[in-house]
Amino acid sequence: MSEMERTLTIVKPDSVRGNVANEVLGFFERAGLRIVALKMVWLSKEQAEGFYVVHKERPFYSSLCEFMSSGPSIVAVLEGDDAIARVRTIMGATNPADALAGTIRRKLASSIQENAVHGSDSPASAEYEIGFFFSKSEIIQTERKQ
Ligand code: CMP
Asked: Which residues have C-beta atoms less than 6 Å from ligand 1?
C-alpha cells in the first residue's frame, strides 16, 4: 500500500545558475507531487557540511560542500503518495552517465557532483533534511479547511 509522504528536494546551484530551476520543479509537478514548502537559500560551506554530514568520511565531501555553497539553491518539500521513492526515480541515478532517459539528471546534470538535484533517500533522512531547512509553520498543511 502506498503512503502519503513528504520529502526534501534541492534544486542545486548548477540548475539555478543555468536557469533550469523551473524545469527541475516541473518534473515533480508533472508527476503530481505537490510543493508544500519552498524557498531560496545560499548555503554557507558550514551549512552544506551540516546537511551532508552523513557523507563526512567520503573523499568527495569537501568538494561537494564547496559546490553546494557556490551559489543559490532552491529547497522544497514535496508531498505525495510514496514521494520519497518517486522523487528518486524522477531524478535518476546520482551519476548522470547512469541515469535513465526521461530523468532529470539525464537531461540536466553535468557530472556526478554537479548533478542538478537532490532528494531524500529514506524516511529518516527526509525528516532530518526537511527539519534542516523548514520549521513546521513554513510547511503548508494540505488538509487545512478554508
Ligand atoms: P546527492 O543525491 O545530493 O547526495 C550526495 C551528493 O554527493 C550527490 O548527490 C552528488 O552531488 C555527490 N556525489 C556523490 N558521489 C560522488 C562522487 N563519487 N564524486 C563526487 N560527488 C559525488
From this structure: 55, 60, 64, 94, 112-113, 115, 118
**Within 13 A of 1's CA, how many CA atoms are on the CB side?**
2
Domain count, the chain: 1
Could you tell me if residue 113 is inside a domain? yes
For residue 145, tell me if it sits in a domain. no
Q: Mark whether 118 is an active-site residue.
A: yes
Nearest CA to ligand 1 atom 22: 113
Q: pLDDT of 87-145, one tens digit each?
A: 999 999 999 999 999 999 999 999 999 999 999 999 999 999 999 999 999 999 987 77
pTM over 0.90: yes
Ligand 1 centroid – CA 72 distance (Å)? 18
Catalytic residue among 118, 126, 129, 133: 118
Domain with 92 in it: what CATH number? 3.30.70.141
Residue indicated by cell numbers 573523499? 59
CA distance 100 to 144: 37
Segments forming the whole domain that contains residue 40? 4-135
Residue 140 domain-assigned?
no
